[in-house]
Amino acid sequence: MPARLRPAVxxxxxxxxxxxxLADEGDAAAGERxxxxxxxxxxxxxxxxxxTPPSAPFPALAAAVREHSLPLAPFxxxxxxxxxxxxxxxxxxxxxxxxxxxxxxxxxxxxxxxxYGVQAPADLAASDAICTGLQLTNFWQDIAIDxxxxxxxxxxxxxxxxxxxxxxxxxxxxxxxxxxxxxFEVARTRGMLQAGRPLVRALPWRLGLELSAVISGGLRILDxxxxxxxxIFERRPMLATxxxxxxxxxxxxxxxxxxx
Length: 260
Hints:
Helices cover about 70% and strands about 0% of the residues.
């Protein structure tokens, strides 16, 4: 990444990390978490008014916003998603999950594109597909972990459609119905990641290569979930040494991905 963009990327990351931690870390009550996130929103409003809030991570963020003319809406969207994490633990349907991803994942891609001056509607749509696909991949990878936090990102109507109930998550039971459900979610997610690949060609070579690697890594995790028949309970699907060889091949030769 060009040196001139690194401080802005660090500022974006530190903001997102701090806000996410307010929602997820520590022992604060839900009301306290919401109040802290509301305060983050208020600090963003101050930046929009041309002020520089004194407390970290806002001075660096304010500098990045002004230097690169970054929109504030994606930051507000992130705070909105983290606020939702405090109060929402189930999603009635896939549209609800997508709306969450629109605010929890897609803003990061859009902010990076803004730094590079890439704003064509097709490129933004491709970025959204990649970011949502990566978020969903993480959801399916972490079903057992999220269960310990009383969160279920699998849409409730999908559970009913495949004859699965939450007790199977509690019991770590991967039967035929569960395997069919995960195969469906993985296939839908894989389609999103693949739909975003054209963005690679719209970016500077080095960033495009990095994005290609990220997409390939996400796709490989989905391969891993398929390989264990959706049984993410026995062992969390992760990339081993051999997988990185596949990721590297697909990064440089995505058109020949089926060859390995």
